[in-house]
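User: Predict the complex with nicotinamide-adenine-dinucleotide.
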Amino acid sequence: GSAKMVRICCLGAGYVGGPTMAVIALKCPSIEVVVVDISTARISAWNSDQLPIYEPGLDDVVKQCRGRNLFFSSDVEKHISEADIIFVSVNTPTKTRGLGAGKAADLTYWESAARTIADVAKSDKIVVEKSTVPVKTAEAIEKILKHNSKGIKFEILSNPEFLAEGTAINDLFNPDRVLLGGRETPEGQKAVQALKDVYAHWVPVDRIITTNLWSAELSKLAANAFLAQRISSVNAMSALCEATGADVTEVAYAVGRDSRIGPRFLNASVGFGGSCFQKDILNLVYICECNGLPEVAHYWKQVIKVNDYQKSRFVNRVVSSMFNTVSGKKIAVLGFAFKKDTGDTRETPAIDVCKGLLGDKAAISIYDPQVTEDQIQRDLAMNKFDWDHPIHLQPMSPTAVKKQVTVTWDAYEATKGAHGVCILTEWDEFKVLDYQRIYDNMEKPAFVFDGRNIVDAEKLRKIGFIQGLAMVVR
Ligand code: NAD
Ligand code: UGA
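Assistant: Here is the predicted structure with nicotinamide-adenine-dinucleotide placed in the model:
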């Protein structure tokens, strides 16, 4: 090939676009990578010392290549026109109104990105779907691009991302696989090869899978559905464990030792959260319905139903253990992020649990090492879109939230004078808290509800805690 430097532009500087492009830049010094976004605030943050997202190892990667071959810019049009490969990593949330509301993916941002590309491009481009999209999206995108193409050739590839938040950098460094889907034409295959060359800088070629476009698009939805299904399966078992005296941790361990099942991703919890599992499964359900497959749609919907059930079951357990009322009682909430090692609160089970407790008039005091007070207040006052009719949660006014909710920067402060403690995120630091000290400063009887199975149940019992443990009975 020519000595010309390959140029990559990525639309969307979010949880996926930022870390993914930073790792490509780090691993491919010969490629120039520019990440653009319509949010100038986000771009400024990427160019500052305070990156817009918390992700272990990310600061280090960005520091190594920002200004060298990694750039963050608000000049969307300039960088699109200069790039050979354009990744689109914009958000694709669930539609909240119109056709398919509550299930279908909202492709407004994607469509507007595609229109910008069509308007601005002056040379041939490879356009890569990095966002998670419904199967067949490439067909729609192709229509938008080709309609305005003025003779310019666009090749569309699907390259879904499988990183998990909290471990994004490691996942990107050592992916289980990279998936590339493209058209089965010579031009399509040439584009697939060009993208494969990028990843081959650090990913072993036997881990780079190539498929047709529709398989790549659908595999992403399928993978998230399978992962979430494992959690709902073990969470459904946790309910039966509580009813029978079995210990869900022991059951999960015994089941996971079967090499066909495997040990990972079987932790019972207060429910899964995060921006994608629910959104992607709803999207899958909608696609099944649109394709005349109601039985398949119903099957996957149950994964979300069980997740909603698990969250409301947790709230019910807290309230019923505490003599059927938490009105006026202080309840400490340890952890608000949807999982450890991230400050992300999108769809965190903590929102539903806190709203449930607030509905019963509890005074809650929240501590999370990475989530700001502002974010928590906003999340709790937000009128969450009801995808079906899960736990009925009254929206609260920001002032009402402020009255009933305090946010602290210390676990001991949060638990002082509390009647109960709910652990909602599995932060490592919660495993090593001085629970004797916490107990001594609480009202008695002191309750603990471990929604993540991280504390030593026996140790806590000895201290004197009553374990209205929602997930484990020992
Ligand atoms: P995000 O909301 O963090 O980032 C999306 C960014 O795109 C925002 O900063 C937004 O301002 C920007 N944007 C929107 N329209 C734009 C446009 N027309 N031009 C330029 N920028 C635009 O979202 P995210 O978490 O990074 O997710 C992005 C996609 O990746 C979603 O489809 C998601 O399902 C998928 N995904 C997410 C994860 C994850 O862990 N978060 C993992 C795998 C896949
Ligand atoms: C998930 C997938 O793991 C990624 O592969 C995928 O790329 C991503 O969604 C996406 O498409 O957005 P993420 O949501 O960031 O990643 O984090 P996970 O580690 O999957 O955790 C999701 C939720 O499930 C968290 O609330 C977590 O606490 C919960 N969980 C996870 C459990 O309750 N039990 C488990 O055993 C594992």
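Residues 132, 161-165, 224, 227, 231, 265-267, 269, 272-274, 276-277, 338-339 surround uridine-5'-diphosphate-glucuronic acid (ligand 2) (CB under 6 Å).
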